[in-house]
Amino acid sequence: MADIRTNIAGLQMVNPVMTASGTFGYGLEFADLVDLSQIGGIIMKGTTLNPREGNDYPRMAETASGMLNCVGLQNKGVDYFCEHIYPKVKDIPSNMIVNVSGSSPDDYAACAARINELDAIPAIELNISCPNVKQGGMAFGVTTEGASQVVKAVRKVYDKTLIVKLSPNVTSIADIARSVEDAGADAVSLINTLMGMSIDIERRRPRLSINTGGLSGPAVKPVAVRCVWQVAKAVEIPVIGLGGIMSAEDAIEFFMVGASAIEIGTGNFIDPAISVKVAQGISNWLDCHHLESLHDIIGII
Q1: Closest by alpha carbon to 258, among 275, 244, 238?
Q2: Region 252-256: what's the mean pLDDT?
């Protein structure tokens, strides 16, 4: 059987399949539906320094081969996470990773510092790429200076594995990736959602409460593959690929262009067990092609 273990900047994973933030709750919600120990990493929903109510409804709209969302990072804040969620997730036998966002570099750093104190959280994913909030989020991820500023602030207070999630809504995602690498990121994940819009022509108004939202699902996969390919050639740190992955074959495309791991997002809404199925499918594909290890295909293109 092929070896599908992988390592992301010291983060040892039983397989290269992770769940994307905002699509898998805190993992607890899926415990009765899938064996969480068979998932390489679970990236929990976005957490901010202070509680956020998120955007008004409607927050989601179905599109051709995908969906739009503008949830807006609704959460109860990092203190609530530490006091109420962490005790419930700390013993889950997977890499439990917190997605951290903020409205300023100081906010990001303060939130990350609180997470740094939690022994059972081995990594954070720094979200500088969310298109669904009015302050922060993608604002920091669309310039090299902004991205670097946030990563430097967090790196000063956070000493575990630091993954930075990148936006595709930029002129050169490779330049952004290089800037966060130089600022101290241990790995990058990409892509976050593409900014999109959908109109209800009978009501003559946008389908989302804030007009625009993040597009995810199979429709974005070709863009995501291209971005991962560009970034993997531009940086030395590990790359995590995501965007429209619905099968092992989709995941393998990302490995071939340089990803060392992948995340599944929208697919979790369709099949709660998709992460485990994709991991098994990757192993089967490698076996069928007489390959001994996942690393035999990483970055071959």
Answers
A1: 238
A2: 98
Q: Name residue, tokens 């009015």.
A: 134
Q: How many domains does the chain have?
A: 1
Q: Model confidence over 7-63: pLDDT tens digits?
A: 999 999 999 999 999 999 999 999 999 999 999 999 999 999 999 999 999 999 999
Average pLDDT rounded to a whole number, residues 203-218: 97
Three-state SS for 105?
Answer: helix
Strand partners, 13: 6
Length of the chain in residues, anyone? 301
In a domain, 274, yes or no: yes
CA neighbours within 13 Å on the CB side: how many for 29? 13
130 is catalytic: yes
Contact criterion met (CB below 8 Å) for 49 and 79 = no
Q: Within a domain: residue 301?
A: no
Question: Which of these is catalytic: 70, 82, 111, 130?
Answer: 130
Predicted confidence at residue 136, as pLDDT, reads 46
Looking up residue 167, the CATH number of its domain turns out to be 3.20.20.70
Q: Is the pLDDT reported for residue 127 higher than 80?
A: yes
- 34 part of a folded domain: yes
For 78, the enclosing helix (H) or strand (E) is: helix 78-80
Q: Give the C-alpha separation, 45 to 62, whole Å.
A: 21
| pLDDT value, residue 130 | 63
Dist CA 103 CA 97 (whole Å): 20
Tell me how far apart the alpha carbons of residues 137 and 128 are, in angstroms, rounded to a whole number: 5
Q: How far apart (Å, rounded) are the C-alpha atoms in residues 100 and 47?
A: 5
Q: Which domain holds residue 144?
A: 6-296
The Cβ of residue 200 has, within 10 Å, a number of other Cβ atoms equal to 12
Q: Can you give the pTM of this predicted structure?
A: 0.96
User: Can you list the alpha helix ranges (DSSP code H) found in 132-290?
Assistant: 144-155, 173-183, 221-234, 248-256, 267-270, 274-288
